[in-house]
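quick one before i forget lol
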Amino acid sequence: MPSITSPIPGSEASTSAPDRRRWIALIIVCLGQLMIVLDTTIVNVALPSIQRDLHFNQANLTWVVNAYLISFGSFLLLAGRLGDLIGRKRIFLSGLVLFTAASAACGLADSQDALIAARFVQGLGGALAASVILAIIVTEFELSSERARAMGVFTFVAVAGGSIGLLTGGAITESINWHWIFFINLPIGLVAFVAGRRLIVDNPGLGLSDGVDIFGSLLITASMMSLVYAIVASSSDGWGSASTLGFGAAALAMLAGFMVYESRVSNPIFPPRILRLRGLIGSSVVRGCLVTGMFTTFFLGAIYLERVRGFDSLQTGLAFMPMTIIVAALSLGPTARLMARFGALRLLSVGMLMPIAGLALLVSAGPDAAYFPTLFIAFALVGLGMGTSFMPLLSIAMSEVPSTEAGLASGIVNVSMQMAAALGLAVLDTLATDHTHALLASGTAPATALTDGFHLAFTVAAVIVAVGIVIALTVLRGVGGASAATASPAGSGAAHAGPRAWGRPDDVDPLPDRAEGEDATDGADDRGGREYVPQPA
């Protein structure tokens, strides 16, 4: 087993309080993440009730979801960078307040326009909070062993929240009404805000003394908004429509202009050097491939269960419980131990084979397939893959990121997930729908046509995940954090190596640049004399 650093005997008493604070702070930020993740699926379950109550037509109903997706996806990068500049705690708490207040407005909405407007604001609040959560985690937990455990909790919340949302959404909608799917966010947001204000350590940020890159901020936000709109509108307008192509082209043009502009200004909102971090950018591409397979299984699998197998929303949520339970079990420690033993890249490569196997099983499931064993094992395999892949990806992504840019990196990680999920679902849903329509036109039975359409989407998703494995083995090999016991904490970068003390605020470089000839491996803590010694392997 690789050696780890731990406090010398006798120092535990002095560190128990800050240690508890960090783990409670982790629960707080994950509570915020859970609230955001739950909202996505819980609203989808309630859409039929919302449509009946507020008299939405089918075209306008999609904007209950799209308004949120557009604002959420558009502001992630900017919000993450603002966390680096003015403080991540401030951005996180501001996001919680905005998200919670908008949730109240959603629950009180009595018209279509009011609900859609509140959903847009809710997405902005979600972007502010979610963009800095990963940055808060990696700067609070600098030892690789502790960070792995913390990321395990984050992974569970991020992945398992979807199926929990299906269960709670179905139960609330059927037992009370759709308004309460938004009102349940109020006590969660209040508790997270009060506790977070007290327990989350703030980084003072880089400051705004050099000015603010206002034009760059507006340009990247407009670009992301155009791109997300093009993706979400493609399902109704079509990929070849003037609207989809126009907004897509405008997004790419603004993004290209943004990159050119950022390379020429002295205080860029998006420093181009971050694109040279192979671990961050490479893992984001791989994560996009994995997320495509995961969300295809989750959302198209849910539609298959409801439309083909006749499950109600509560039964559908229960059907995905094997996935949730497996991710939870792996997040409690097994994945962290496997990653320490075999390295992030090896675990990732093997873990990503599991969703491929699960998708292959779903392809074999016919219209009358029994839930057990085929569907049960398929969902369990996808859960096994998610539980063993997301943590290594997060570790690799943040291993080379300086602490001053952890917020921006956290935003990039979130954008890679959101964009891949939106784009992957839009493309695969289009493939499945077109194939189903073609089969119906040829006289195929509706259940068979639907199932075959889903089979095509599952097959393409499996191929995309396989491409992700190839990219991981090609691009991520040799990246810091990809092999066993080599993960370096955020803020270390390639130039900083050595033992790290945990429990520091992230604005303090735990291993500052030293004078020439000074021992860079000194185990003494520069703030309190806490000495760390390596334990025997």
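fyi Residues 426 and 512 are 46 Å apart (CA to CA).
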